[in-house]
Amino acid sequence: MHKLQMVDLKRQYQKIKSEVDTAIQHVIVNTAFIGGPDVHAFAKEIAEYIGVKHAIPCANGTDALQIALMALGLQPGDEVITPSFTYMATVEVVLLLRLTPVFVDVDEDTFTMNLDSLKNAITDKTKAIIPVHLYGQSANMEPLLAIANEHNIPVVEDNAQAIGGTYTFSDGRTAKTGSMGVISCTSFFPSKNLGGYGDGGAMFTNDDALADKLKMIANHGQKVRYYHEMVGCNSRLDTIQAAILRIKLRHLDEYCAARSSAADYYDNAFKNNPKITTPFRAGYSKHVFHQYTLKLNGVDRDAVNLALADRGVPSMIYYPVPCHKQKMVTDLTSQAFQLPVTDMLQDMVISLPMHTELTEEELRFIVENVLAVVNG
Ligand SMILES: *Cc1c(COP(=O)(O)O)cnc(C)c1O
Fold first, then answer.
1. For residue 161, which atom of ligand 1 is closest to its CA?
2. Beta-ladder partners of 230
3. What separation in Å is there between the alpha carbon of 93 and the centre of ligand 1?
């Protein structure tokens, strides 16, 4: 058996090697390294896939979030509501732009934004809400959007972990994650569900004026070359990455299905174990399992993490310190946030290997070892 990894990108590459190698070679031969036809084609193809009018590629998912907040015209001191139970990048861009992060709690089953906590956090200074589709499951967007609309606050989706996922509205209509916010952001970091072979990201919107603005900000604040209308940044998707992502996008649904069937295997193996809570699958969401994350009950989670490593089973804690407790945040704000669910989850969650190439033999080995360690 292979040495187990959290994410095995090598075996995935081997299956698409000839396609990918040809595409990379093509970019090099054409020496169109910046912009170029692959970037435009990829933007068009991914916009179609997500079901939005515009996709604007950029350098990474963090830039996507930053540019989205800049395009909304937010000013220092404006409040932005985000969960604390997320990757730091969601919050870092808020701080970088001198905006004020307002942290809300998550639901203990879905790990996504708690709507009562959201309602309580809204003030007349709230200028954006960033729900995060954590671990591959959509936040509960229909009521969330209703709350946002009632207060006229734009929603920016952080879809870095859930590309390929869907949300089902109460009338039966479905929408891809990343198509519901005023702007949505995603990342093509290699280990993400649609990962390149380096950094990459994109923003999505149905609004023509916002699309122009996002494009302009990502390109030094210029629409016409050398005429700079506003402060922007330099954030581009490499052509080589776009060429690779075009190929991988065609496999994305199949990749999501492979993740989902690995999740089914895990679910089945861990069901009825009182010490293990398997990921909740909300009825409104098609979970795409960026992570497969258990909650451990009455077990020393950190000891389990170490014991699994000794047995050759990698596991990760996403994330060991919630954002509101990070020094980056506490150094800048004096506000104390009461987030009991986030604080509780911080000590319970553990993520197991999850990728598109897990074999039954590997899954069996992981499961046997998890059960042996957890049951003691
Ligand atoms: C990965 C990730 C990002 C940032 O993406 P990068 O491409 O690494 O900059 C932002 N938010 C979440 C939730 C992520 O998982």
1. 15
2. none
3. 11
